[in-house]
């Protein structure tokens, strides 16, 4: 495993982090047995993953509870960098933005209880709330920070101008945007902004929700009936065939190194300019082990060029199809 400092801090985090949305066993990811989640956490710890990312909304508290129980039972709280979020509330099936200061105070207490901890190493605003000024959200985060109950402050799904506004009221250590080989939007503005302002980037969905593992294209794995994949455009024609063609090319490169396609994808993503850590989800021990072994080798410059060519040709094919 490789470790990098969370920018501007002395917190050392693994360059591959564990994303735990699927632990929530909700409609988005479908059923997840808690015992598989405990096994993933065990395997993650064995393989040197130190950063664990969760959120209250993942299974309406369930992902946080699983992690809280695991850390307590194993006595590992001090050994992990624990990151959670706030700002999404729920009632029955509805999920909605809520960053009212009163709600933020309730949320941090509820998360501390579920995660069996007094403090968070990283506390992130999950999404901006259109009904709450950023100044108000950032001021409450700054109070948490000044009190020491959160060691560092992050935002997620924020645009550049929203981060800029946030930073007028609170230090900002990290940003969590979506990023993977098929979605490189952040390279245009978020990456340069974060580099310039020394903000760590924790990239989510590095496997494009499992699609970049290639298993739905080459291994005969059935597309799951979960909300996350059943209607995913990358798994429907004409994109399915385009993606299959590109993934075949990437797989050939991975094979030269005796690595899985997943490992090539994660290695490339974790080593992109400005990326501090990638939040890879895993549902079982085997997936975790595959993912955690992605960084102990280097992709040669000639292959980085081939990857760039493949991804550019995909962009072009997608552009033509959408025209
Ligand atoms: N801030 C935000 O708004 C936001 C949004 C989304 C995600 N996130 C964070 O980012 C994390 C990662 O995103 P994600 O979990 O949505 O997507 P991801 O990391 O792109 O994909 C993870 C999924 O791919 C499959 N997979 C993983 N490793 C595999 C392997 N080696 N071989 C085969 N299949 C494998 C698993 O699902 P199957 O086995 O079911 O295929 C796993 O749940 C989340 O858990 C969460 O912590 C944050």
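Sequence proposed for the structure above (323 residues):
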């Amino acid at each position: 495993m490789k470790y990098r400092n969370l920018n501007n801090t002395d917190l050392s985090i693994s360059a591959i982090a564990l994303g735990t949305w699927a632990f929530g066993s909700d409609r988005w990811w479908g059923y997840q047995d808690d015992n598989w989640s405990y096994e993933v956490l065990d395997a993650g710890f064995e393989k040197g993953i130190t950063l664990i990312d969760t959120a209250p909304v993942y299974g309406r508290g369930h992902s946080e509870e699983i992690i809280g129980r695991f850390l307590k039972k194993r006595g590992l709280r001090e050994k992990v960098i624990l990151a959670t979020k706030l700002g999404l509330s729920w009632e029955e099936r509805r999920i909605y933005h809520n960053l009212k200061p009163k709600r933020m105070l309730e949320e941090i207490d509820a998360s501390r209880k579920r995660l069996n901890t007094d403090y968070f190493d990283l506390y992130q605003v999950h999404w901006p709330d259109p009904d709450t000024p950023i100044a108000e959200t950032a001021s409450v985060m700054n109070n948490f920070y000044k009190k020491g109950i959160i060691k560092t402050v992050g935002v997620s799904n924020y645009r550049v101008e929203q981060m800029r506004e946030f930073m007028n009221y609170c230090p900002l250590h990290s940003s969590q945007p979506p990023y993977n080989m098929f979605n490189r939007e952040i390279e245009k503005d978020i990456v340069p902004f974060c580099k310039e302002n020394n903000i760590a980037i924790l990239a989510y969905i590095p496997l494009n929700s499992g699609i970049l593992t290639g298993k739905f294209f080459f291994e005969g794995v059935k597309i799951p009936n979960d909300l996350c994949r059943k209607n995913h455009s990358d798994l429907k024609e004409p994109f399915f065939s385009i993606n299959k063609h590109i993934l075949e090319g990437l797989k050939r490169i991975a094979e030269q190194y005796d690595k899985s396609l997943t490992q090539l994808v994660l290695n490339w993503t974790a080593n992109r300019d400005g990326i501090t850590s990638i939040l890879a989800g895993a549902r079982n021990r085997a997936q975790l082990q595959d993912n955690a072994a992605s960084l102990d080798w280097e992709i040669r410059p000639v292959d980085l060029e081939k990857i760039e060519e493949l991804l550019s040709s995909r962009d072009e094919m997608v552009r033509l199809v959408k025209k």
